Amino acid sequence: MLIIHSNQLTKPQLQQIETALNTTLHPVANHYQANISCPDMTLVKKLSEDFKIDINPLPKSFAPANTKLVISDMDSTLIGIECVDEIADMMNLKPQVSAITEAAMRGELNFESSLNQRVALLEGLSESALQKVYDERLFLNPGAEEWLAGLKSKSIPFALVSGGFTYFTDRLKQQLSIEFSRSNQLEINNGVLTGKIVGDIIGAEAKAYFLQELCDVLGIELNQAIAIGDGANDLLMMNEAGLSIAYHAKPAVQEKAATSLNFSGLDKVLDFINAEI
Question: How many alpha carbons lie under 13 Å from residue 184 in its C-beta half-sphere?
Answer without folding.
Answer: 26
